[in-house]
Amino acid sequence: MTTLTGSGIGLGIAQGPVARVSDPLPKPENTPSTAGAEAEKARFRTSVAVVARELEDRGARAGGTAQDVLEAQAMIAEDPTLAEEVDARLDDGATAEWAVVDAFAAFREMLTQAGGYLGERAADLDDVAQRVLADLRGVAAPGLPQPGHPYVLVARDLAPADTALLDLDQVLAVVTSDGGPTSHTAILAREKGIVAVVGVTGARDLTDGETVIVDAENGAVVTDPTEAELTAASDRAEARKAAAAAPLKPGALADGTAVMLLANLGSPDGAAGAVELGAEGVGLFRTEFLFLSADEAPTVEDQQAAYTKLLQAFPGQKVVVRALDAGADKPLKFLNDDDEDNPALGMRGIRILREREQILRDQLTALANADAATDADLWVMAPMVATVDETRYFTDLAHELGIRTAGVMVEVPSAALIADRILAHTEFASIGTNDLTQYTMAADRLLGSVAALQSPWHPAVLQLVRSVGTAGADAGKPVGICGEAAADPLLAVVLVGLGATSLSMAPAALADVRLSLSQYTLEDAQRIARAALAADDAASARTAARDAAEKKEKEA
Ligand code: PEP
Ligand code: MG
Question: Residue 288 CA: which ligand 1 atom is closest?
């Protein structure tokens, strides 16, 4: 038995025989074209258009995120810079086949060197190159295997076009040797609930037909497993299936400590789906998403209609709405100037709302009216709060305008560091780990080249979470988490160990987080959190937490 390791997506586990994606097409020789540059250009343009339309067509059939991904890939195929690179080679006398492979390889190199998010787009580019080459040669593009029985799909990295249309009755799990947690394979696997481990060193040596266990929770692929391991794996898969099918229970730790599990939403339309997946309410409603394309500030009436629709979907439940968080990655035309050098550090969130107070007043009035007309338990919070003064300002204004429960987001390190004083002036805090990580690590959350620094597992980020958790416990006030970190099943346990009292996430993550929390007591969660806090960096914090969590499993 050997264990290969990589990044697991979700908590699933599966086992079965390997089937590999077929090898890439043979590389063309660099022999001079006999047809001439213009004819070769026409062949290239035709093939690229065929490939782009086919990608769009697959996207339309798949829908959802897959459609966005495939449409982006079709745009890559028709990227004018790439076409110029190909044309330059054709003008030098190359064949279209060789020019495509060579120009795409040069572009791939650039992306790989950029690293992070861009680096992980390299697989998309390889797939486009293979499809164009196949069309030029009049052969089928390399694609998914069809062994005639369910299989564990092994690939270097899956093309989005293939991941989007995976037959989930046939594909038991996906293992890739390349790609990281933000590759398109990972994004789509997460959305479709496919058991997947990506970036697995040694995956290239797996052979067709050999049986493996794919353990996403532990980021492991076990080759040559023993009978006992196979049985343990299928027991775990069954337990997970049973947990997913069981009547939905409120989030809680193994000792019964309640941890409310809430949904992050950007539109009232997502409410029904969130309720179906067991959301106990809403932990973050991003109101700015409703008005991203608006030129003018929305009226009280328009807002009231949207908020009423949202609140009606959660009778008797908590719904936390965030006042407009305009700026940086989410600029609103009616609130932001576009001439700041560093918009993430500029007039955004509560700063711009305070300057344009009428817009904030209108929003709070619309929210209070919607609250009065419905039965939900409305809480409203301010984004990007950095100071006690901002906290008092927002809380007082919200109360003045009829909001019963007002709080602040903790996304700026200053607010986390003086959370005790912040919480003295407001009713709750909700930690936005996406921005808190960005500002703690000084790493732009939109920039692929610094993505490695953007991990909420970093002990510096965890220490700030602890500061807020401790202040909340001392003041007897709730501390929620509403950044992406809450959707990571193990990190969710750590966050509760650091003092979070509720977790809010994309609804698709609720089942895995609910199951993960149910396995640990509060004492376990605190011990696991201490292990992560004591680590040197994000990767070792995760390993330390995993080791501390396993210790508990062995003792049980
Ligand atoms: C956050 O920053 O973690 C957060 C939840 O807010 P947003 O992602 O909308 O900035
Ligand atoms: Mg934020």
Answer: 9
pLDDT above 60: residue 432: yes
Query: Do residues 150 and 297 share a domain?
Result: no
User: For residue 424, what is the domain's CATH number?
Assistant: 3.20.20.60
Q: Does 129 fall in a domain? A: yes
Instruction: Over range 50-72, report the average pLDDT.
Output: 85
Are 357 and 440 found together in one domain?
Answer: yes
Q: Show the ligand 1 pocket: residues with CB < 6 angstroms.
A: 284, 286, 325, 411, 432-435, 482-483
CA of 293 to the centre of ligand 1 (A): 19
Residue 259 contacts residue 501 (beta carbons within 8 Å): yes
Furthest C-alpha separation in the chain: 80
Tens digits of residue pLDDT in 356-373: 999 999 999 999 999 999
Residues 460, 407: Cα–Cα separation, whole Å: 24
In this structure, the residue with its CA closest to atom 6 of ligand 1 is 432
Task: Single out the residue in 137, 160, 187 at which a domain terminates.
Answer: 137
Give the pair of three-digit tokens for residue 471: 């202040």
Count of domains forming the chain: 3
pLDDT at res. 190: 73
Residues 309, 276 within the same domain:
yes
Quote the domain boundaries for residue 508.
Answer: 252-520
Same domain, 397 and 311: yes
327-344 per-position pLDDT tens digit: 888 889 999 877 888 999
Distance CA 410, CA 413 (A): 8
The CATH code of the domain that includes 195 is: 3.50.30.10
How distant is the alpha carbon of residue 214 from its chain centre? 21
Residues 152 and 280 in one domain: no
pLDDT bucket at 210, cuts 50 / 70 / 90: very high
Distance from C-alpha of 256 to C-alpha of 529, rounded to nearest angstrom: 19
Three-state secondary structure call for residue 380 = strand
Q: What's the angle, vertex CA 493, arms to CA 491 and CA 496, rounded to 5?
A: 110
- Specify the pLDDT at position 448: 61
CA distance 388 to 130: 57
The pTM (predicted TM-score) of the whole model is 0.70
